[in-house]
Specification:
Layout (H helix, E strand, L loop, with lengths): L2 H22 L3 H6 L2 E3 L11 E5 L5 H6 L3 E3 L16 H10 L7 H5 L2 E4 L8 H14 L4 H16 L3 E4 L2 H11 L5 E5 L3 E6 L2 E6 L1 E2 L2 E2 L2 H12 L1
Parallel strand pairs: 1-3, 2-4, 2-5, 5-8
Antiparallel strand pairs: 6-7, 7-8, 9-10
Length: 226
Amino acid sequence: MDMSTLLELQEEARQIDAKLAALYETDGEIKDLYRGASLWYSPVVEKPQVMFLGINPGAGYFNNNGAPCHFFEPLKIMEYVDDTQDYQLKWEWQYVFGPKGLNRLDVLSKSVKTNFCYLATEDEAALKKLFTQIRGKLDIAPYEVFGNWTKQVVGLVHPKILVCEGATALEWLKEWSFNGEYVQDEKTDTFAKGHIGDITVLQFSRVFSTLKNADTVIEQLGKALG
């Protein structure tokens, strides 16, 4: 893995977050939307079996601590297998990879997890509003900046399987990170499958943090893992 590129991406994230953190102290619109920044939810390893890509971090840290988060370094343990973490999406993936599913918790523990955008907000609607604020007040093109972040990170990690956590994550990946490079192979009402070069891309439908059809997830991931 090209660590210099990874460090450059993390430093760019620090700089953007620092500008927003400064505005947070004086700008009411930013204060209503911005909840910090968090880059990684796992160690960063090259060529894992699976990489997870969400939309952006939620506001859990902010709601618990009353202040924005600022986390830029990779974690020591993958959050989905961390016993100190307790939230629905973690348990969904534990079930999929656990004894009643794929029985491959070893794969889950060695997976990489990040988001298309590392800026934390209450929800997707708030993120889109924050993007508007960023474009106007920081003269930053957010979709282009975070699309490039995602493309660079996916290229550095180069997983066998990229799991998009939600339809928006896949749509933004296709439009802003790999425009013209993503090829769709299959799509139903519960999942989508495609590829970017030799990387298999999967997206599974959810109802909030609950997977819509866990059996389909297990089946499709099992096929992709081989």
